[in-house]
Structure formats: structure tokens, C-alpha cells
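fyi for ur records
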Amino acid sequence: MSTSNVVAPSSTQTGSNGKKPIRAGAKRQRAQQSRWAFYLIIPTLVLLAIVIGYPVVSAIVMSFQKDAGLDPATGLFVQGGFAGFQNYAHWLFQQCQGPNGTTISCPPGNLGSTFWSAVFVTFFFTVTTVILETGLGLWFALIMNRAFRGRGFVRAAILIPWAIPTAVTAKLWFFIFSFAGVANAVLGAHILWTSDEWASRFAVIIADTWKTTPFMALLILAGLQIIPEEVYEAAKVDGATTWQRFWRVTMPLLKPALMVAILFRVLDALRIYDLPQILTGGGGGTGHATTTLSILVVDQIRQGFNSAAALSTITFIIIFLIAFIFVRLLGTNVVRTQETQQKGAK
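which gave:
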């Protein structure tokens, strides 16, 4: 058979890597699709700018203004004017306005003196509840992921606390933790759950864990159900025990979904307001044992709107930084997982 009629492909037909070059029409089509995608998200961006962007910018602008009040000289209600960083110093350094315009340390009982206590309470609630809810949520998710008779009933029963409104949950646990309530009857104790400093904090943690653990279980269950069954079968063939399959197969593949669940829960816990407010009146113990940053913002609004705007801005920055760190960690995690899967495929 003669090979003289065989024609080598020209450079216009194949690229340097042996693949056909992308046609100009395909490029134009992709560019047009990108433009349409941008046009379609413009209404959403405008809505977000109005609903989120405008309030945030307004709060930041207001945080640099003095609170309006009565002018001692005239007795008239006047605007405060530009305050600089005075409102931020009020919270961060606990500096209050003294007589004749002097700056003094905020006296005990002033809301400015409770800022760092509120920061501690907020982070204490966040760290404690997220750890408990993640552990219990993982356990419940593993139970709901198994095939057994009555699984639908068990799933519904586990998710019921999450479906109950937070205000109802707080009132329910308020009666449980009352002096003559179920908690003291079961423990045979006389604990002032909503009045004692640390007892009130643990009461909030218990109630929040009971309510929000199903949410974590639901997110983790979604991550468990996308893990291929073939991976477990291969691990069984290799002789892996149940514990080894959990640590070497389930947890690495579940890690991205677990990080997303923790991110959502952390951001939600940092904004906690209604549960401690209703359960303990927003104080507990010495008056500020369960006061979180959100509760402090609402209390300050009644005394000075611009000072409350500064506290809201500080809270926003704290939550934003934590969310940014989590998103960066989550992105790194996803990339590493994909690289590991690609190496395993090769």
C-alpha cells in the first residue's frame, strides 16, 4: 500500500499540542454568554447594594458623628456634629464623656464598660456551641445516613428542634430552667439557672445546642450522601476496619462540607441575640453575664444611635474577618481535596 497520498495535517487544522484551535465563533459565543450572565446578575447586585450596601455605609458614616442631645446653654435639641474616632474609643478603650467635655474611664454599669465582657461572652458562646453542635451533628448525621427501619421517623424527630422558632425554644427552656422547673427536679438541686452568672451561660449553651444541632446534622448529612459507596467497598476489600474507614475515608471526603457547616454556624452564633435575650433577659447573673455584642448594640440604640452604629461597625468587622479567614481556609481545602483526587485517579 502506497503512502504517497497521505497528507499531513496543516498548522491551520491542528494546534501545536495536536488539538484543533478554538474557532472564532466559539470565542464570540462564550463572550456573548459572559455578557448575558453579567446583565442577568445586575438586578441582584443592585438589590444587594440597596439592602446590604446602603445600611452598612450609613452605619459607618453615622459612627463618626456625635449623638444628638440637649444643648446645656440653650436647652434645645441639637445634632452632635463630627466625633472622629470618639465613639470607637468609647467601646474599645472604655472612654466616656466626663464633665465639661473631658474624657474619663467609663464607670461600672455604663454600657461602654461592658464591651470586652460582651466580646468574651459572644466568643465563649460561639466556640462552645459550635464544638458541641458539630460533634453531636456529626453523630446524628451518621445515624441518619444509615439504612434501617424507621429511618424517616428518626430523621423527622431529630429535625424537630430546628423547626421550632427561637422565641418558643427560649420560653420552653425558661420554664425548664426555672427554680421549680424540670432541670432542678431531675438534678435534685436548687440552681438559679437564669440568675446565676455561669449557670445562666450554661443554660443558654444547652438551649442553643438543643435547637441548632439538627441544622448541623442536616448539612453534614448532605455531605455524607455525596460520598461514593464504591470508596467504602474498596476500603473493605483492603481490609480497613470501621474506625479506619471513618477516619481515612469519611472524614477527608467530608471535610469541605464540614467546613461549610462550621462557617455557617460560626457566623450565626456570632450574631446570637434572641435566645439569651428571652431566656435570661439579656443579662443573667451580675446583669451582663449573657450580654452578647448584638444585645449590647440594641441596648445602646436606646441611649445613642451613633454610638450604637460604631459598635455595629466593630461587630461587622469582627464577623467579616472571621468569615474571610474561613473562606480562605475553605478554598485551600477544596483545592487540596481536588488535587488529591486527581493524583489518586492517575
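The domain at 115-345 is CATH 1.10.3720.10 (MetI-like fold). thats all i got for now
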